[in-house]
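stage 2 :: seqdesign
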């Protein structure tokens, strides 16, 4: 992205390649990027997303818990 504006994720495509994986990400403004990743990098990304979502769930549970 040339203008450095943050776009909302509109789609992503994950493909297996001979050397690992190709992750293609597109924003709602038409900006896109493609990056290669290893299995270890994808595992780290999955773990980071899981941790973040787990924190959100825990916070929501605390808010909704009876006192």
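stage 2 :: out
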């Amino acid at each position: 992205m040339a203008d450095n504006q943050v776009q909302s994720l509109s789609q992503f495509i994950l493909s297996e390649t001979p050397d690992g994986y190709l992750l293609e990400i597109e924003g709602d403004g038409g900006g896109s990027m493609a990056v290669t990743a290893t299995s270890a990098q994808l595992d780290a990304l999955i773990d980071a997303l899981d941790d973040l979502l787990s924190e959100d769930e825990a916070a929501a549970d605390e808010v909704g818990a009876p006192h």
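stage 3 :: structure notes
- Residues 41 and 47 are 10 Å apart (CA to CA).
- Strands lie at 9-17, 20-27, 32-37.
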